[in-house]
Known about the structure:
Elements: E1 14-18, H1 24-31, H2 34-37, H3 48-57, E2 66-72, E3 78-88, E4 93-100, H4 109-123, E5 129-135, H5 139-147, E6 151-162, E7 165-175
Parallel strand pairs: 4-5
Antiparallel strand pairs: 1-2, 2-3, 3-4, 5-7, 6-7
Amino acid sequence: MKPEDLPSCDHPLVTLRDLVRDDARAWYAYLANPVVVEHTSWDLRCVDDLQANVDDYASAEPSSPIRLAVVLRDGGQLVGTIGLNTISAPHRTAEIAYDLAPAVWGRGVATSIVNAVVDWGFQYLGLLRIQATVLESNSRSIRVLERCDFEREGYLRCYRQIRGKSGNFWLYARIAGVP
């Protein structure tokens, strides 16, 4: 995407840019951290597992997932990713997903980037609904979604396999024009 087409993040610590292949090492470094992976559905064995994902995000198809790099304004170091998956143009819906390195936890980064991408999805992409699924154990992400005006809609039992085990998830959604 062109820089002017990207969501605008007003957080003083980070900005958003396109995710590139060179980001895979930094991305893997924090995704391999046990405190990060504990509350995600990632099942990575090595940095190469992420390369295919980065390539998929570079696709220009209208319904292709979108993933952006969250980088420090000072120095450009990758500290997270955020994007929209399961984009349905006919239904004008998508699912938001994000992850952050522990170095930026508790600083308002997640709330800022989620709000930026949701606002952009509604305004720029014309989406009507953006949903999120979050592991029931991920209380930090649940708080972020609730601060970003997502509403809890349901409980999804055995929704996804998480490293060989069934995981239960909460379903949250935010609807365009509904505060």
